[in-house]
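WARN  no MSA supplied for this record, continuing single-sequence
INFO  ligand: NAP
INFO  echoing inputs
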Amino acid sequence: MRVLLLGGTGNLGSCLLTTLNGRGHTVVTLVRNPSKLTSHPQRHSIQVEEGDAKKAADIRDIARRHQCDAIVNAAGHAAMAPWGKSDLPAIVDAVIQAALELGQERHTPMRVWFLGGQGILDIPTLPNKMIADYIPMFLEHATTWKKLQELPPSAIAWSILCPGLMRPAVGESLVYKLSGESTSPPGWSTKFLRIPVLGPYMNIMSQISSYATSFEMNADFIATDLEKGRDSEWLLHKVGVKQIRK
Ligand SMILES: NC(=O)c1ccc[n+]([C@@H]2O[C@H](COP(=O)([O-])OP(=O)(O)OC[C@H]3O[C@@H](n4cnc5c(N)ncnc54)[C@H](OP(=O)(O)O)[C@@H]3O)[C@@H](O)[C@H]2O)c1
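INFO  complex generated
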């Protein structure tokens, strides 16, 4: 696929550059400061465009010029505290707007991967309750989720990846692989949920740390999925991930 990656200078974005390229995708990245990629190992085989991910016209024009089939948004970073603010909501608005315009031009919905966080995943057995309803951090991901749900189903071929804490890989790719699940974190235990009031907090706090994953594995998850095109099982889904033994 020809992929437009937003945010190729970030932690996840720079892994995506390597992995998308390694898996045979043609990669164009929109970055604010191209000089940050001068020493990236894949610099010679990717195309770098200067732009602002908050501007729908920048995204649309670059995707149009390079005839990109898919967009991956790794630009922006959700604010941590409940009252914090970042550029992520403006970036998501711009990506949605650009994808809608490109889809209308081509008469087919644009394939787009968004990034969310584990907080927007559902807790099994608790109807309509997300993890962030109890631990209200990185709430801008919930705003992204709401915007995606409000889109007509045929407008954008979106998926949203919802990892827990991500960190650089330390050799685990030899031992572990990433398992994905729609709607809830894979293998989420329902322990403590029957305890009134405190149960959901105990449920979350007792297992959330086991959902840390590496930037490299998440990049691989997206790159592998893009090979499936419209046959992806994650179309119009929020997707939780967990490292499991190979
Ligand atoms: N890191 C985690 O543990 C974690 C866990 C769950 C979910 N997430 C989510 O995953 C996503 C990626 O996280 P990350 O850790 O890779 O973030 P990051 O390292 O902070 O990277 C953010 C990227 O966004 C770019 N950016 C920001 N505003 C931009 C703009 N207006 N135009 C173009 N590029 C812009 C930055 O470019 P510059 O280099 O120019 O600043 C940088 O490349 C975020 O949505 C984050 O909330 C992260």
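The longest strand covers residues 238-245.
INFO  checksum written, moving to next record
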